[in-house]
Amino acid sequence: MLSRVEKINDFVIRLANVNGSGSASANRIFARSMIRMGIPVGSRNIFPSNIQGLPTWYEVRVSGASHLGRRGGYDMMVAMNPQTWDKDVAGIDAGGYLFYDSTKPLPSSKFRDDITVVGMPLTEICNQQYSDPRQRQLFKNIMYVGALGALLGIDTEASEALIKELYKGKDKLIAPNMEALHIGRDYALEHLKGAIGLKVKRADAVGDRILIEGNAAAALGCVYGGATVAAWYPITPSTSVAEAFAGYCKRLRAGEDGNKYAIVQAEDELAAIGVVIGAGWNGARAFTATSGPGISLMQEFIGLAYFAEIPTVLIDVQRGGPSTGMPTRTQQSDLLVAAFASHGDTRHVLLFPADPKEAFEMSAQALDLADRLQTPIFVMTDLDIGMNEWLVDPLKWDDRKKMDRGKVMSFEDLEAGKDFGRYLDVDGDGIPFRTYPGTHPEKGAYFTRGTSRDRYAKYTEEGAVYVDNMERLLKKFETAKSLVPPPAKTDAPKATRYGAIYFGSTTAAMDEAILALNEKNILLDRLRIRAYPFNDTVIDFIKSHDRVYVVEQNRDAQLKTLLLDTGKVDPQKLVSVLHYDGNPITARFIVNDISLKHGLEKPLKESVA
Amino acid sequence: MTWITKPKLHHPKLPANALGFTRRDYEGSVSTLCAGCGHDSISAAIIQACFEIDLPPHRLAKLSGIGCSSKTPTYFLGQSHGFNSVHGRMPSVLTGANLANRDLVYMGISGDGDSASIGLGQFAHCIRRGVNMVYIVENNGVYGLTKGQFSATADKGSKSKKGAGNPDSPMDLVSLALIAGASFVGRSFSGDKKQLVELIKAAIAHKGAAFLDVLSPCVAFNNHVGSTKSFDYVREHNEAVNALEFIEGKEEIILDHDPGTTVNVTQHDGSVLRLKKLAEDHDPTDRASVMNFIQRHNARGEIVTGLLYVEADSEDLQDRLGVTKRPLNSLSDADLCPGSTALEKINAGLR
Question: Which of B78, B166, B188, B282 shows its CA 20 to 30 Å from the CA of B241?
């Protein structure tokens, strides 16, 4: 007897579509309908670098317990793309379900006998219903949403409300979409009753959470953080940061006396970062949004901003590298190129948001840090965070918060005769004062250059003076440790000698994995890193455990490399868990890999740190 | 400070401008360029122009790329902030600086290597955007700091100091600027200070991208026989199209007695450019005919100088973007942060 996965509010459905076929909005209605029923849902687009005709998938994680990272595997496949049929069917968890368009009969070899197959003649129904080919395609999507709703027990009212919201302003589209939804639903109610064991049940687990993409959230963070200048060059997956910034500015920063912002779509990434640096030099808050290839192009300029000490914010929405790599797939593989961007000795501050909410907060904070530290600040998000809608707590802003403009000498300071040395460390924190151009007729002007200079900004190639400046820059980096977001530590239920370190978009899968590991009696204290340079608690965490798994989404263990670079940790203690196939890491992957490494490798002796 | 301070003592009778500054107050540190370098003459012309238009020195920001020309901002306007950025990228840095504070005057100093080779893209795009700036290329056809390689503006067939001929066609920056939409285009010669000072004054008053290609012979590497950028060659082939007189808006404008030979162009800020025509067939307000004019003279091996093109009612990048008149770098928390109430509304729209 065929076993069937029977689950309520806890499953994964994957929909396979062809891109450009209009499936995206239908799939969103499907996922959002369940959220409207109070059930947490995480949804991810897995899409090609293409506009029309290539395979695309939409993965819907339904989790009453709010595990909204990728779980791994899927309980049901909605197979709408013949091109990917074989792989799509092969990937279904045993006992799972295949929903497909049964208009055209398929040989039994195309199916599996350990899954439940649910066929619906979608094309046939559409062809009867509509004569226009485009309508046949578009309404097929909404029709399967109706059918899935009936199979899973989704409230029709929720889907109907979403259709109305989606087509608000294009009202004539509402009625036909409603009709298609009901045709699908009615068919399933009549012919497919009880066909699947996956069910949703109204819950109260969503609360006041919002659905937002990380790119939009980062853009909003830049608005709240006071950015007035944005310069960018189109590149997947960061383009929507700039576009969202433009949208929010239009809504929130336009006025009768003109726009309180300026956005330049530059001719390339070099110009984009140049504009940001020029604006930062002249006292405006500025940022760029880009991805790996852009960061590669910006290297020389980033070195200038580091050495000449110019506030600069870069939002790096990481994708699969190297080279053009996988433009529409996710990775955490720009850590090293960002941390050490430029020729010569440099070190840069990196922030690691875990989700769109933190992308909002950290983008705003990055603008403060850039002014305070007078250096480039990278907000290291990725495609998974940036281009997927995440269910997160509402964004919050404390109205008492003011922009920290850092150490800037005013006209009054200069007039009062304060000693101004552009590269003079007056407070012992490595951070000098600066002046904005045009401040004072006689005092405070200086020459900014990428060449070596003394504490009063005078050009010099004298070795000792150069070293003095480079050492001060290191001191400033040390100061950064206490200013960047500290790591977040969560202890295992019982004392343990093992730990795990992770960051960014891995967090959601990690939170789920840790529960499964607990069940396997692999107890891990965990530390989520939120910034580089590492706060001392990161080093203490490693020191206080015998073995620490470092989980990251790249091939070369880049976070581990940065940890080892501190020179304060024993390399033997750090065991890498690496996932870098371009799809977001899954909880199952983490559980499997850590279980394997935990079992096969004997715990190391207490090492001499 | 960053420059070698020159003694401030000067002749008590040195004339002062309306701000009470003498010409010396517009100087920078002592030049470290080769003796006789054309670039130093350009710095002197910038100093003279800023002095004559009573520009408060600290209200100008000077930006440059890399190369001999890009070193020169240290040698003028010592009370101005300066930024010696990276090779070929002055235009983007200046664009950002301009966006941050529209109230300053922006002077971008570049060279032919900086703007016609590595920075050709940024040159064209900042002109195209109409960034409000004076863009000066100190054009000597040669890489000086790396000792004498041809630059992209070197004429085909011109000889290097070592005798090699240049096989490539030259980039004509004036023509490129016109194609890219520059609203002010001039060409001058470092050896013609009178013409250059007037052009710089007019360019500062101009709103938008004002481009000046200034031929500036390199005495060390490109001043020999066979070079088309030497002092002698440029003097021989210089064809001035007009004689410019820059008149600040506040002065009364007296009608010219001979309208047939004089063109008056009133710029955005009220300043008047009075152009005494030297070439009959040159109309500085008609872009297409100017391009045609330049090509014809280029073909004859003539170097046309003067104010070649000007658009009177020009606009700049900030106008095009609809940016507030208040400098963006002066906006406060209240101006910029929409606050928690607005955020709650945004949250509500995302459920």
Answer: B166
